[in-house]
Write a structure and sequence with these properties.
By secondary structure, the protein is an alpha/beta fold. The chain is built from eleven helices and eleven strands.
Amino acid sequence: MNVLLHYNAGPRLRDVLDEESTDGVRVTWTPEGDDDAWFRAMATAETLLHVLEPVTAEAMDAAPNLQLIQKLGVGVNTIDLDAARARGIAVANLPGSNAIAVAEHTLGLLLAVLRRVPAFDREVRAGTGWPLAAEIPDGLGEVAGRVVGLVGYGAIAQRFGSYVAAMGATVVHHRRSEGPDSVSLDELLAVADVVSVHLPLTDETRNLLDARRLGVMRPGAVLLNTGRGGVVDEQALADLLRSGHLAGAGIDVFEQEPIDIPTNPLVGLDNVVLSPHVAWLTADTLARSIRLGVANARLVARGQEPEHRVA
């Protein structure tokens, strides 16, 4: 079976691919961003290990032998699921495989916002870190004593919640399905000092945090988003950050990726910490995900149902 990873593979990851290329399975890779190379490789691919670059109907048509699109992660909004169904291609994801990495990155964003880490780094390098302006300490905060609201309550949110609880925060959560101790979204937004988004992008969640709901958030609150960009109205968020109603934000995911620097409303704001959709990305997560994805490919090759099939 030919398994194709669509991602830029460094030396450590290539070693993992070589280790998995056994017992009739051959794992190769092609970099994201080079569509010509990708489509050539797709001609013989039977399983596609997908990361972030969209898998379109056109890409599927370039792969006449494709049996499985394996998402390395959870969100499948970058896969044309209708096209996959029409072509009889199974789609599966890996819930929980990146939970550690995303939860830790979310915590990192929170600390970076509360303690102004990027700004202090820039100021020290520029020789302007001392003395501090008198108003600077007023904007610095701690996790302990805050109410942290989790929008979504899957494996990532639960792990992140355990981290901040251990640091002295009170945790509340909202889940789309009924669950014990879950509160309504508006209630969560009204009481939380920190709102952390952990939702996939679906028709139901698109722009869930719109101008009205963001406006419900407490004055001085912080928003974190390591779920999906389209869940949050970026312009409305920027307006509330600029007005001072919200104190800060830590954002890893965006409505458009890569972002358009001149038009993205968050780029020019000093109270926002940004990262390029890398919350999931560690060497450990990649290796674990590759191994799980190839195991699913082996199931499909034997005519069995893949684990965590979503379409």
